[in-house]
């Protein structure tokens, strides 16, 4: 009998539509897989068995339909879900049950997607390893002693561990793409404003963007299409149709496409094995008919410091709402302490060390006398990075780079060195500052661990990611005799 957890989203949906298997059977198979392996992986913070089976029953009854009807999915715990806990990986929201659904959640339900539960993440999406979750780290299915990336390591690990064929992540500085790179999966950050942020618990409002995690480029495209599009409840939502991402993923042709390697995102700072797999993939694109050149984006070198002023500044403002009064944790309310003391004690107990570090950084950068020197200057650098992108896209259709400087590192290896942790997002941060779409897809192994290639495109040209990704994936699968994940070791649980 076919292992239902090993099917792609496309295969799963087709089998359900053809009545070869029921959506309930598919959901139960994935719930059983979670029960079997998640004790070792810890990809999920909450499994919604009852809700998942109820949605699957609706699909079997014909109440909902669509290209992904009946396909299971893990939802990053930063996306609000009515009646289901949403913690954002933090003690400060432990036990909070939202009274409404995020737009992404609504669209998933309308598409007949079966939400299995909420996936683990770095607290408030602040991290690159999912070790900053208040509920314990997620482990990489390729090697349980290593990190799965962050902040959306739970979503990527769930897909890589065959606990769900699809997942939703969010990407503020690389939190979809970097986990995809180190777990051998596909992760996409859509154009900023291309997917609604209504109901996404904010970290950095000008950077946050929800997007798909999958095992194949086509699966990611179908999920992108399902969640994308204008939402009047989000003031930053783009009022335009979703780019033709599914059509592009199926095209599998890059003949004549202009591909440019970003000089500043290769070489020094990247592990030799990562660079080798990247170079091989670029050579393959050339074999497939693309024109490959090199481009310089000189201000990308300043993306990391600019990001770590802009994102913490916005976080210090956004996280002020967690005040012990309106929702979430409340500590020290003994009838003696003042409101200010209760607020202080609640935040001390509810926020983790990394969140506190970034709140302090951001508050300082926004403070009187320092705003122009830090936050203001960082925004000027952001403008220069945007100009670099626009100049590069005058001579190239897409830009490429490694998606991460290295393969998955051991758990705990960088916890005591925040700067080393921050450098994991060297390649991914520029696209967030620009607002353009970007994808990571697997292109091979280094030291037995996955390597990801990043594709970047102009704003609202998301389909170019899928055109390149689909063609490269097909060629690599022909060489490998199947997907990279097929070579992953079996989980020892």
How would you describe what is shown here?
The protein has helices spanning 9-17, 23-41, 49-60, 103-110, 153-160, 177-183, 217-227, 245-251, 272-287, 303-318, 339-350, 353-366, 372-392, 418-422, 429-434, 463-480, and strands spanning 44-47, 72-76, 114-119, 166-170, 186-189, 210-214, 258-262, 291-295, 398-402, 438-446, 449-456. 38% of the residues lie in helices and 12% in strands. The model has no long low-confidence stretch (mean pLDDT 96). It has one domain: Alpha-Beta Complex (Amidase signature (AS) enzymes), CATH 3.90.1300.10. The protein is globular, with a radius of gyration of 21 Å. It starts with 8 loop residues before the first helix and ends in a 13-residue tail after the last helix. Helix 7 runs antiparallel to helix 8 and helix 8 packs parallel to helix 16. Strand 10 (438-446) and strand 11 (449-456) form a beta hairpin. The protein has 493 residues and is α/β, with parallel strands linked by helices.
- Decide which structural class fits the backbone: alpha/beta
Quaternary form: single chain
Radius of gyration: 21 Å
Strand order of the largest sheet: 1-3-2-4-6-5-10-11-9-7-8
How would you sum up the global shape?
A: globular
Mind describing the biggest β-sheet?
11 strands, mixed
CATH class: Alpha Beta
Q: Which strand-content bin applies to the residues?
A: 5-15%
Order of helices and strands: HHEHEHEHEHEEHHEHEHHHHEHHEEH
Number of distinct helices: 16
């Amino acid at each position: 009998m076919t292992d239902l957890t090993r099917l792609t989203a496309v295969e799963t949906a087709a089998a359900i539509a053809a009545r070869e298997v029921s959506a309930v059977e598919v959901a139960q198979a994935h719930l059983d897989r979670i029960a079997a392996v998640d004790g070792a992986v810890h990809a999920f913070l909450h499994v919604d068995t009852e809700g998942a089976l109820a949605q699957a029953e609706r699909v079997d009854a014909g109440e909902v339909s669509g290209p992904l009807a009946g396909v299971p999915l893990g939802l990053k715990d930063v996306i609000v879900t009515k009646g289901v806990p949403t913690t954002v990986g933090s003690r400060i929201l432990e036990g909070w049950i939202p009274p409404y659904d995020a737009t992404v959640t609504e669209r998933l339900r309308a598409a007949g997607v079966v939400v299995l539960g909420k996936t683990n993440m770095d607290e408030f999406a602040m991290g690159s390893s999912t070790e900053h979750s208040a509920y314990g780290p997620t482990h990489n299915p390729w090697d349980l002693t290593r990190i799965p990336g962050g902040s959306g390591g739970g979503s990527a690990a769930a897909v890589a561990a065959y606990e769900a064929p699809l997942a939703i992540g969010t990407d503020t500085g690389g939190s979809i793409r970097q986990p995809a790179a180190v777990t051998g999966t596909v992760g996409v950050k859509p154009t900023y404003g291309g997917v609604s942020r209504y109901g996404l618990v904010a970290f950095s409002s000008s950077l946050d963007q929800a997007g798909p995690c999958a095992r194949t480029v086509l699966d990611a495209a179908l999920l992108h299409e399902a969640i994308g599009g204008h939402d009047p409840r989000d003031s930053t939502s783009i009022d335009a149709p979703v780019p033709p991402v599914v059509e592009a993923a199926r095209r599998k042709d890059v003949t004549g496409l202009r591909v440019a390697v970003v000089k500043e995102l290769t070489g020094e700072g990247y592990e030799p094995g990562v660079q080798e797999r990247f170079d091989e993939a670029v050579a393959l694109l050339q074999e497939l008919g693309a024109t490959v050149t090199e481009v310089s984006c000189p201000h990308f070198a300043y993306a990391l410091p600019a990001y770590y002023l802009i994102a913490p500044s916005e976080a210090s403002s956004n996280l002020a709402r967690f005040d012990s009064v309106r929702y979430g944790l409340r500590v020290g309310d003994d009838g003696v302490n003042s409101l200010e003391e209760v607020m202080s004690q609640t935040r001390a107990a509810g926020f983790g060390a990394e969140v506190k570090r970034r709140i302090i950084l951001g508050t300082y950068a926004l403070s009187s006398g320092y705003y122009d020197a830090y936050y203001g200057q960082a925004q000027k650098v952001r403008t220069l990075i945007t100009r670099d992108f626009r100049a590069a896209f005058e001579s190239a259709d897409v830009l490429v780079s490694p998606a991460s400087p290295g393969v998955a590192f051991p758990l705990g290896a960088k916890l005591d060195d925040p700067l080393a942790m921050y450098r994991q997002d060297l390649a991914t941060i520029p696209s967030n500052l620009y607002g353009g779409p970007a994808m990571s897809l697997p292109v091979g192994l280094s030291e037995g661990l996955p390597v990801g290639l990043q594709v970047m495109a102009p704003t609202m040209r998301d389909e170019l990611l899928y055109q390149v990704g689909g063609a490269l994936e097909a060629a690599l699968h022909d060489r490998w005799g199947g997907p990279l994940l097929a070579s992953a070791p079996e989980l020892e649980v």
